[in-house]
Write a structure and sequence with these properties.
Chain B: It is a multi-pass membrane protein. Chain B: The chain crosses the membrane at residues 12-34, 40-60, 72-96, 116-134, 146-166, 186-207, 219-239, 269-292, 304-324, 330-356. Chain B: One of its GO terms (biological process) is spore germination. Chain B: It is found in: Membrane. The complex is a heterodimer of chains A (74) and B (371). Chain A contains 4 helices and no strands. Chain A has one domain (2-73). The relative contact order of chain A is 0.12. Chain A is mainly α. Chain B is built from 13 helices and no strands. Chain B has helices spanning 8-32, 39-44, 46-63, 69-111, 118-135, 137-163, 180-193, 213-239, 249-255, 267-297, 303-320, 324-333, 335-370. The longest helix of chain B has 43 residues, at 69-111. The relative contact order of chain B is 0.22.
């Protein structure tokens, strides 16, 4: 997955190189953030870095109790 | 520069495929966890969730004609609170996109490509989606129209051929366990899938007349309810009590089709139809996400984040959901209340804040006139 992510990132940057050069700082920051986060996730998947980590745990913690309560009420 | 517009029929078609894309795969099995014989009644409750969406869309389109939800949040709640609510909405859209992509990866992996790594299928899917979104909303909507023709060709054939194996007695007796299991089964269709129709709020600015949006969403909700109910009735009638144990019961119903001794394995056609409609759903949600990012972060175009965002959705789908079980648990036990908060409460907050603001403005104007 890392190699595929690296290839995709390089392709995306090559395709958008011209528009990135004229983009504002905010746009470039967001772009870099997205590509870096994607690469980081791909690497973490291949290296099993996040195997024991449930990334959606905060969302689950917020909404799962309420949903389970709803099931119980019905 | 002319303003990009989408027609009412395009909006209806896109919304219908947003629901049926994954709904037709997931809803029958999700409902069958609670009730099998009365699953069709649970599926019919989809119209209740659709009614909630129509009411919110009506209020929103009257208060904010020609505005997306994210830009309306900034206008109604100011830059700080509006941006915070917008980011919350965008995170929910991102997770939804990841969920849909992961569902599609698992479905294709199980049905037709068991030896291909799931993330490779996801990469190809997101490549097509990102390209369509990059070209703009018109291309996404025209794709939806084109795919409708394809599905309209396949769906009736599969439906009528499956009917020859249907046993209506599998649906009887009705309501023997009472309304409890029926209502519990209806939560997924009502609060997960029906509330996804709220994505229409991100497309209001492309409509010629935003006042018709609520009517269009109502049509999409009714069409989706009828289609889902018919599919559920057919599936239960063909597969029977085994529906409870299957991940893809509709696929089993289609696999039963045999015409003579030579025509079988028509499930390939079903998979083609599902993959095509999932493509529309992913494209609509990805466009909504990218246009939301444009509003919230003040970007020059939705294209800035289309490709990089597509990459992020692709990796996120695999990292957020390790297995098909993770996706099913998330859909059944987290998404219902998460969607109520995000897709119902947040647009209502925008409407209420705007109503309060205009009320105060009117009061100040009256006071100024009185001197």
């Amino acid at each position: 997955m890392t190699w595929l992510a690296l290839l995709s990132s390089a392709s995306i940057i090559a395709i958008e190189w011209r528009s990135l050069r004229t983009a504002s700082r905010r746009e470039r920051t967001l772009y870099t953030l997205f590509v870096s986060a994607a690469l980081l996730m791909a690497v973490s998947f291949d290296t099993h870095l996040l195997t024991g980590v449930h990334v959606l745990a905060p969302v689950d913690a917020l909404f799962r109790p309420a949903t389970e309560w709803l099931y119980q009420v019905l | 520069m002319t303003r990009v517009q989408i027609s009412r029929s395009q909006l209806v078609i896109a919304m219908v495929w947003c629901i049926l894309g994954t709904g037709i795969v997931t809803i029958p099995s999700a409902v069958a966890q609670f009730t099998v014989r009365d699953a069709w009644i649970s599926t019919m409750l989809f119209v209740v969730g659709g009614g909630i969406v129509v009411a919110v869309t009506l209020l929103f389109s009257r208060m904010f004609p020609c505005r997306t939800l994210t830009s309306a949040l900034l206008e109604a709640c100011g830059p700080w609170i509006g941006r915070a609510l917008g980011i919350w909405f965008l995170i929910c859209l991102y997770i939804t996109n990841c969920t849909v992509l992961r569902e599609a990866e698992v479905f294709v992996g199980v049905t037709i490509l068991p030896k291909t790594p799931e993330y490779v299928m996801g990469a190809f899917a997101m490549l097509a989606v990102a390209y369509a979104v990059y070209l703009g909303v018109e291309v996404v909507m025209r794709d939806a129209e084109l795919i409708t023709l394809l599905v309209m060709l396949i769906a009736p054939i599969l439906f009528f051929l499956s009917m020859q194996h249907m046993d209506i007695h599998e649906l009887r007796p009705v309501l023997v366990d009472g309304w409890g299991p029926v209502l519990r089964g209806g939560i997924v269709s009502d609060l997960d899938y029906a509330l996804e129709l709220m994505i229409a709020l991100q497309f209001l600015m492309f409509l010629k007349n935003a006042n018709t949006a609520a009517r269009d969403v109502a049509v999409a909700a009714v069409v989706s309810t009828v289609a889902l109910t018919l599919v559920t009735v057919l599936t239960i009638g063909v597969v029977g009590p085994s529906t409870h144990y299957l991940s893809y019961p509709v696929l089993e119903a289609v696999r039963n089709i045999r015409v003579g001794r030579f025509l079988e394995r028509l499930d390939t056609l079903y998979v083609i139809a599902v993959v095509s409609t999932v493509f529309v759903k992913l494209a609509v949600f990805h466009y909504a996400w990218c246009s939301g990012l444009k509003d919230v972060f003040g970007l020059s175009s939705h294209r800035v984040t289309t490709l990089a965002g597509g990459l992020l959705v692709w990796t996120g789908a695999t990292v957020l959901f390790r297995s098909a079980g993770d996706v099913q648990q998330f859909i059944a036990y987290t998404v219902p209340v998460y969607f109520v908060v995000t897709f119902v409460a947040i647009p209502l907050v925008a409407v209420i804040m705007m109503a309060v603001k205009s009320g105060l403005r009117r009061r100040n104007a009256v006071l100024m006139r009185r001197g």
